[in-house]
Amino acid sequence: MTVKVIEGTGITACPAGFYALYEGAGYNEADPECRRVLIADEPVPDLRTYDFDATADSLVNLSPYTVELYEGAGRAGEHLTFGPTISPRDLGGFGAEAGRSWSHRASSTDAFKAELTRRQPGAHHQEQGSKQAAERNGEAPAKDGNETESGSA
After folding, report:
1. Helix, strand counts (H, E) of the chain
2. What is the DSSP letter of 78?
3. Exposed site from 29, 43, 90, 138, fewest CB < 10 Å?
């Protein structure tokens, strides 16, 4: 498993099997001052460790994982979900529930084996993501009141 920060531009800065966070929009191609790229094939619980907190402005996902960007360290708070092969040129185009953009907002990531869902790429999820994270960590998710004992509503 690998996490490192390199310099680069364009989708080709992200190796196959990894996801990449770029400090600039358009995969660092829109601003010549932006060169840093965080590449990973595992979760990053605190982007401050790599001096990448609230830095990402675009993302490439060439991994077999679903990647979630979280607004807080330790997978806390609101998050965005991107499946494999999803590569948004500008995270600023994704709004948060509070009305803020996702540009320069991510403080941690999660990466887990992709599952087929009907969620839209880049959709933000608060409660559902917390349930899925709890299940991946072996914790029992809290019931939300819409569930019944038989599993049907």
Report:
1. 1, 8
2. E
3. 138
Q: How far is CA 1 from CA 4, 11, 73, in A?
A: 10, 21, 20
**Residues, the chain:** 153
CATH class of 3-136: mainly beta
Give the tens place of pLDDT for each residue, 29-74: 988 899 999 999 999 999 999 999 999 999 999 999 999 999 999 9
Q: What is the pTM of this model?
A: 0.75
Q: For residue 22, what are the β-bridge partners?
A: 37, 58
Domain edges within the chain: 3-136
Q: Which of 48, 43, 108, 104 is nearest to 74 (CA)?
A: 108
Q: Which two tokens stand for residue 66?
A: 């679903």
∠ Cα 105 46 2 (to 5°): 110
